[in-house]
Design brief:
It is a single chain. With about 110 residues, the chain is mostly helical. The chain has a single domain, classed as Helix Hairpins. Helix content is about 70%, strand content about 0%. The chain is built from four helices and no strands. The protein has helices spanning about 1-20, 25-45, 70-100, 105-110. Helix 1 packs antiparallel against helix 2.
Length: about 110
């Protein structure tokens, strides 16, 4: 149970960074922290204490074995790839904004509007 609370706390730390920080790079890093907190939470949902890998083998036979749910793991893998693409796009936007306005500060960028 404590691990779920820590994943939610990690999400809230990322949300704090997005809402409070003014630097574009810090905002992108905060968004990444939020993405990884959600990925961690999904991976924790599929975890089972004492669970085995969901691989069919002949040695299991008719024994009832508790398996780990593979669906959240597959979703997290897909989310990591999508998050990587999103992060690359956000960093490229931040670099282009820096080239145009010579600052990462969001408030200064809003004042310039050029």
């Amino acid at each position: 149970m404590i691990v779920y609370v820590l994943a939610i706390l990690l999400f809230l730390i990322g949300l704090y960074g997005i809402v409070v920080k003014r630097n574009l790079i810090k905002i992108v890093i905060s968004l990444m922290i939020m993405e990884y907190a959600i990925n961690l939470f999904f991976a924790l949902i599929g975890y089972r204490e004492g669970g085995a890998a969901p691989i069919h083998t002949e040695e299991l036979g008719d024994n009832m074995v508790l398996f780990v749910d593979p669906l959240p793991q597959a979703l997290v893998l897909t989310a990591i790839v999508i998050g990587l693409g999103t992060t690359a796009l956000l960093v490229s936007f931040a670099v282009r904004i820096y080239e145009k306005y010579d600052t990462f500060d969001v408030r200064k960028i809003r004042k310039l509007r050029g």
